[in-house]
Amino acid sequence: MVKIEIKDARSFIDNEVYAQYEKKALAAFDTLVAGDGAGNDFLGWKHLPTETPESLIAACEAVRDDWAAKGVDLVVAIGIGGSYLGAKCAIEALSHNFSRQLRRPGAPEVVFAGNNLSEEYLAELMDLLSERRAACVVISKSGTTTEPAVAFRVVKQYLEETYGKAGAAERIVAITDAHKGALKTLSMQEGYRTFVVPDDVGGRFSVLTPVGLVPIVLAGFDIREILAGAAEEEKALSVPSPENPAVRYAAVRNALYGALGKKVEILVNYNPKLQYFAEWWKQLYGESEGKDGKGIFPASVNNTADLHSMGQFIQEGDRVMFETVLGVEKSTREVVIGSDPDNLDCLNYLAGKRVEHCNAMAALGTRIAHLDGGVPQISVSVEKLDARSLGGLFYFFEFACGISAYTLGVNPFNQPGVEAYKKNMFALLEKPGYEEASAAIRKRI
Ligand code: PA5
């Protein structure tokens, strides 16, 4: 279960002020649960953990088994934003740190594409494909996003040249809208196996739909455990109480922002496997809250590495930030520091201690230092980093995000600002239909 500790943030906030934000967060909780707030046609994610049918889970697992039988050893997962970050985050969190180098037999390697427009990236992906037995999962809810569409065109051509059209079709799975979009049309025409992104689930809330579940299961991880962990959290967070962890997170971060002007929240981890969790979280909170001239800017650090780079700013720079430390209580592996007769590195004082103990002391020392430096601290933690806890964390942050955005007074489920760059890019690429915009933008450059 996900635990939250807010005392080192509450100590910065006046009691009466906190009570006001707590009240707002409780009202926001009611709005989210009742489903009568802004963007309420995008609440399909709320009951995914408890309502995902067995048939859908089995269909995801069937792709895994089918491709294993074909000897697939590389899966290219194509998607961007919400159609990429959840799966990437889960696979990074659950994989062995050195799985790539160890190359132990097992599930195929899952690599990602369509999340950038780097020509080098795609060319080098082709180098990799040419050495492996590849398959592809293409994910786009709209079915029209440029980055994944470009990558898919390139990968599809490669698969067709290598395996023939029919062979390629057996090695492509499309995850898209049930009815519309270019990817849906293409999938029907080419006979691809498809999964649906539900209409009422936005990209950044879609990790527990096939958008996340298919790449995660293909990478060899237990999606049933992820859903079970999320279901535990769905139940735990359904209680309308100031003690509800999601309400507390929403209340305290809004109080820090609204009353103390803390405009930056840094998600801190002490485990490299969580680096992409922060990327997923940044999209979730950044796109959900950053609008109407409001919002907490979500940032992240990977400690202890970043204590040697960002640590200075966090300790003594402009006091605009608070930290949310994403903690994992128990390491699943053990490394004990040995004794050295010469002790030239002067580390014998640590002999017999686990590295995890050093990590915990680094985290504790940092928390106290940053508190002394005026940086409020929130702690969100799980017992260990496994599929069940990860599912819990996904649901916790999604549910808390809905409450937090309503507390802030914005629609958590739209992202109008994302369109601005697309319009300019299409004008500059001279996409049909953008002639006027194209002429206008060319005058500006
Ligand atoms: O959260 C979102 O809605 C976005 O990040 C989308 O997921 C992203 O733009 C990709 O969109 P699509 O899945 O339609 O290609």
What features would you highlight for this structure?
single chain, binds 5-phosphoarabinonic acid, 445 residues, Rossmann fold, 12% strand
Summed up:
The protein is α/β, with parallel strands linked by helices and 445 residues long. It has helices at residues 7-10, 15-34, 48-51, 54-69, 85-94, 99-102, 119-129, 146-170, 182-190, 210-218, 223-236, 245-258, 275-289, 311-316, 355-372, 387-408, 419-428, 435-442; strands at residues 3-5, 74-78, 109-113, 134-140, 172-176, 193-196, 264-269, 297-302, 321-328, 377-382.
Please tell me about this protein's structure.
The structure is a single chain. The protein is 49% helix and 12% strand. The protein has 2 domains: 226 residues, Rossmann fold (3-Layer(aba) Sandwich); 183 residues, Rossmann fold. β9, α15 and β10 form a beta-alpha-beta unit. The protein has 18 helices and 10 strands. The termini are far apart. The mean pLDDT is 97. It is an alpha/beta fold and 445 residues long. A 5-stranded mixed beta sheet has the order 1-10-9-7-8, with helices on both faces. Bound molecules: 5-phosphoarabinonic acid (PA5). The site of 5-phosphoarabinonic acid has 14 residues, from loops. 5-phosphoarabinonic acid binds next to loops.
